[in-house]
């Protein structure tokens, strides 16, 4: 691990890679800009099936996923992550318009690390991403 001579904390060798999964292209563009500005590398997927195809051990450091998408929804993506060797500890942040207690309960029972409702506070979300990555 490298250290910055001016700081007492380690310097990351490579930026963290975040996979953002949402069927709303505008959301993906905003997330790409917001997370990239914070020094993370961002890849996107327009639906759960494409996300599952891209999720390989060691390829991403964090998954940000919407729940309501055509094809495989966010619940299916989380189930895939938690049942795939090498991905079981991948941190997951759910970002969705669903505000029901049933959805929240299900997401946490499936193993998500955090739940954020839309509309998203883009000023605060990068901090949640950094915090989730730091705890992983």
Automatic annotation (TrEMBL):
It comes from the Bacteria. The keyword Transcription applies. One of its GO terms (biological process) is phosphorelay signal transduction system. InterPro entries: Bact_response_regulator (IPR050595), CheY-like_superfamily (IPR011006), Sig_transdc_resp-reg_receiver (IPR001789). Residues 17-133 form the Response regulatory domain. Keywords: Phosphoprotein, Transcription, Transcription regulation. SUPFAM superfamilies: CheY-like. Pfam families: Response_reg. The keyword Phosphoprotein applies. The modification 4-aspartylphosphate is found at residue 66. PANTHER family: RESPONSE REGULATORY DOMAIN-CONTAINING PROTEIN (PTHR44591:SF3), STRESS RESPONSE REGULATOR PROTEIN 1 (PTHR44591). This is Response regulator. The lineage of its organism: Bacteria, Pseudomonadati, Pseudomonadota, Alphaproteobacteria, Hyphomicrobiales.
């Amino acid at each position: 691990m490298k250290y910055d001579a001016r700081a007492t904390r380690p310097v990351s060798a490579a930026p963290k890679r975040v996979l953002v999964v949402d069927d709303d292209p505008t959301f993906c563009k905003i997330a790409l800009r917001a997370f990239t500005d914070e020094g993370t590398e961002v890849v996107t997927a327009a639906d759960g099936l494409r996300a599952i195809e891209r999720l390989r051990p060691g390829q991403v450091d964090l998954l940000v996923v919407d729940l309501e998408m055509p094809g495989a929804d966010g619940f299916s993506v989380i189930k895939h992550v938690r049942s795939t060797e090498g991905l079981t500890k991948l941190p997951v942040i759910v970002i969705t318009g669903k505000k029901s207690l049933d959805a929240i309960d299900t997401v946490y029972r499936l193993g998500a690390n955090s739940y954020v409702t839309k509309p998203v506070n883009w000023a605060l979300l990068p901090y949640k991403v950094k915090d989730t990555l730091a705890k992983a």
